[in-house]
Write the structure tokens for this entry.
Amino acid sequence: MLSIDLRPRPRSRNRQGQHVHRMVLWLILGLPWLAAGASGWAAEASRPNILFILVDDLGYGDVGAFHQNLRAQAADRSRPWHRTPALDRLAAEGMRLPHHYCPAPVCAPSRASLLLGVHQGHANVRDNQFDKALENNHTLPSVLKQAGYRTIAIGKYGLQGGQETEAIESPNWPAHPNLRGFDDFFGYIRHRDGHEHYPKEGVHRGKKEVWENRSEVSQQLDKCYTTDLFTARTKHAITTHVGQSPDQPFFIYLAYDTPHAVLSLPTQAYPDGGGSSGGLQWTGEPGRMINTASGMPDSYYHPEYADATWDHDADAATAEVAWPDVQKRYATVVRRIDDGIADLLQLLRDLSIDQNTLIVFTTDNGPSVESYLDEAYEPTFFQGYGPYDGIKRDLWEGGVHVGALARWPARIPAGSTSGDHATTFWDWLPTFAEAAGVAPPARTDGVSLLPLLTGHAAEQAPSTVYVEYFQNGKTPSFDDFDPSHRGRKRNQMQLVRQDRFVGVRYDIGLAEDDFEIYDIVADPRQTHDLAAAMPDLQREFKQRVLRGRRPDASAKRPYDDAPMPALGEVAAEPGVAWGSIVGTFAWVPQLHRMKLTAGGVSDQPAGAIRRAQISSTGNGPQVATIIQGYLEVPAEGLYTLGLTTSGGALLRIHEAVVIDADAGYEAGQPSSGQVRLAAGKHPIRIELVHDRSTLIDPSAAPLQLRWSGPTISEGPISASAFFRPKSLAAGPGLRP
């Protein structure tokens, strides 16, 4: 179990806030790395191929298995609908995750949080920071690459950086996909390029650049509709890799740039068949790179929608009217993605790898009102926001409650559902890492979803659902939306979820502003604010959002300068708890979710390291150690914490990452972070890796901690500042 201060946890609906101190005691006393539910890593032979499919601006309500099929089943012809048969099949053969959240209600921050494995309180790309360089840290592809995977990105990227200076020109972007863990890349690197779906012809937004790693190839892509292009390229990548390296698993991040805004149409019908011999094919011939690179760009309507009508007004003399052209286009574009997914599923079967391939499908944010056509588009026609209010750029559920589908026939039961369990994008990094047989980096804010996916929901750790975002617009005044949401000014927004309860704030001015609180399971449209009846949960939400995030100077928030609240009264005595394991580690692992081989208590962190080195047994050149306790802060104010280690380390206070001395850290170099803290006790967690040889050389101290603050001169943190619960005095249950 993670720290209770940010992570949601099961609780009775009528007992919010009553278990805070009890859970803090359990956190440290129980040594969570020894708790049931910490799972081992996968054997190499069972590592799945992984195909992550992300689409652009598709709403929860646009997926048949979530909402569209309900519209199709209704007898009322006044409700138009479209179909997603391949996605429905994906759901039937795997798991629906109906309470899956994206990191932000717009493209770039969602993709950054996915690839970094952190929420928006820790990601370096926030708000509308398109084309900003993705942080040079552990990423989803770099972790899987270290685990032995071939890592491939196809489609839309938009996190390359270099837009701040003219000195950096393509293809030398500082955060090029090849520099963030991907072995191969094919697609749009710039964000804006993804707004055109015929890169060579530039039908609606002008000509764009497509990159194959560091080579620009758009001049070869005559009449290549990007949905078709990216599907065909993915099939080609899978087929080539399986043919050349059948024993090496692959990770493919397929990021479609549709159905976003442009709503360009394909050139022709989807080719018959699918898989190895049918469907879309990559020819490799410049000028006809794929087998649909002929005919007329932006011309083909799917036959189910080309002449579609609906009962717009049952009382009118002529009730049946044609769908608006923009809605025919939208349905065709979505169906084209669906056809591509059917094609990919068939390819996996043809190659006999579908049983051990994990496919995840989701969307980067809720549905949009954007259209680059003369005709405006609104998601009201198909109710793309589903049973929720809000759209892209909203933190009402319709903007971020996107759902996901997961299929892995070897492990995920067919036709299953995650129920009301809330999950998030940043959970996929630890999920894929565990499936690949490695521990995820300690920096991730996510939890592995393998217990949930494989039918062991009782063992599933809760996910952290936290979103922050700024946009100076308003929620649309759609008739479907509750009157209290229509035209609501957005500005600074924040969302947090615990169990079935969501807290949301719009137009935040102060850290003390109240959350509206909704039972999102019983009240998906968020019409009954429960805040007045739940003061304990209100207080806890306000504390959690201050304890689990870090300010970013490029995306300032009105609550950035509010201090992290300390815990209330706790029975404690000097010391810390520790646990350790021996091995070889490519990064500081997420130790608080591992089964470790030794544990105990010590008067201070440095002593805990020594005890870990002495007590740890097993094969491997390194010791990974976790240290937990309380840090006593004498006075409210801004504190600078410093850390020097012989390996790598990550330090959290509550659940906020204060010092990240892992990726790129040089052993022995000081690393620091600043945090504003209230006076009192704060949970602290340090996870680190150090060489076992430092035991022989006492001068090579594996960990040094220092701090300064309002009443403290810069210097080492003394042992008197660390505490553990009194119930740990005898050390019960400290060893496995």
The longest strand covers residues 622-633.
